[in-house]
Design a protein that fits this description.
By secondary structure, this protein is an alpha+beta fold. The protein has a domain of 60 residues: YggU-like (Conserved Hypothetical Protein Mth637, Chain: A, 2-Layer Sandwich). The protein has two helices and four strands, in the order ββαββα. A two-stranded antiparallel sheet has the order 1-2. The chain has a two-stranded antiparallel sheet with strand order 3-4. The longest helix is centred in the middle third of the chain and has 14 residues. The protein is globular, with a radius of gyration of 15 Å.
């Protein structure tokens, strides 16, 4: 995570880590809340479903996502090697 960036954004993957930037400063937990909000928005989840488990005062964080299968999480965040999201197949009757 990079605080005090120009805007909130998900930069991409570096190895197995997701790199994000947030505009909020790292004071009073503002940057942590910005990370939670950014991930919740990208994953179409409530912010309460995104928890910072470790690294509240560090740039590197461990985040827990509740209510989303690992394969769905990987696909929604564009993790390298993740399967593309399933699409419904149209069948003729």
């Amino acid at each position: 995570m990079r605080p005090r960036a120009g805007r909130d954004e998900i930069v991409g993957w570096q190895d197995a880590r997701l790199r994000v930037r947030v505009a909020a400063p790292p004071a009073d937990g503002a940057a942590n809340e910005a990370v939670r909000a950014l991930l919740a928005e990208r994953l179409s989840l409530a912010r309460s479903r995104v928890e910072i488990v470790r690294g509240q005062t560090a740039r590197t964080k461990v985040v827990r996502i509740l209510g989303l299968a690992p394969e769905d999480l990987s696909a929604r965040l564009g993790m390298p090697g993740a399967a593309a999201p399933a699409r419904p197949v149209a069948r003729s009757a």
